[in-house]
């Protein structure tokens, strides 16, 4: 196993980089309402309305660390609406176990949805949860913004994420199911393997992995190639920063959410450019619904959170660089992780043919690692024409993937 680079002693410069990110965020926060008000003034005349269109694009500028609301106040049970309320089931320094409780005596099988801890709040899975709510008792990993976690709380690396999932499954009790979206796929599979080997009564009855980098050596992405090509210490010095005062996490090493978002946009620059062009056309045509939908999507994208530096570096070095789990070399706090120990947890892997973030084959490597499972308990779904986000939100998720998840859960229940 590679050395834990996040534990190395580094020459720590003043957190100048983070101050620059924060200055950019504050500057954009002042510019957005100014652009909006100026556009409204110009729109009073027809020539001015045309001139005001580019100003609306400035509403997508910059980032914010303000967490959006889930806004899931209602779902359906059969043919009737039922109220939904958020309940905090358990709290930890780096997040809380959130339940979307329903006013119904039969909420459905308990399901823990593991949100990515990669720069956005768990509200990014709003559509995922909304589709699952009618048939399941949905719990969610509501991760904390690392800059709000005091340094005294200690580090949070890959081993800690695995331990947190085990703890929250134990809180939910026997009979729960587990679904991980993207980044936490390795942690979820490791947690299931450890619990299976221990015959833990809270081990999940089913495990769904949606587009996670179980074996990033398969069809490697640009990010995966960089992780293997660049010197091990480069990411610690160039891609992480220290949180400055006055934030509660002052002194903590993080992967800044602003930096994560910039990397994400640059990796798919053409798609974002086309989205901005489509927004200009919608505004010019007076299509208020399309313009509002675009704005809502980018409001969500601009809402970022800092990732614990230890988890980011572990993801780079233990998952993308060393592929520890895929090569049978992963250890959890010194203990080997054996996916072949999973024998009674149904496994579903979901991938998309057009997923550039996690190409087909990376997540389905889990099917081969879980060789202790009978073939009938291992399921693979390849969604035609689907990119990364379409696998957990939108029409394909709602019409095809979510019903498949529900069928696997019911069969395993």
TrEMBL record:
Family matches, as Pfam families: PHB_depo_C
Entries under SUPFAM superfamilies matching the protein: alpha/beta-Hydrolases (SSF53474)
PHB de-polymerase C-terminal domain boundaries: 211-412
Gene3D superfamilies named among the record's database cross-references: alpha/beta hydrolase
Xref: InterPro entries: AB_hydrolase_fold, PHA/PHB_synthase, PHB_depo_C, PHB_depoly_PhaZ
Highest taxon of source: Bacteria
Annotated protein name in UniProt: Polyhydroxyalkanoate depolymerase
Organism lineage: Bacteria, Pseudomonadati, Pseudomonadota, Alphaproteobacteria, Acetobacterales
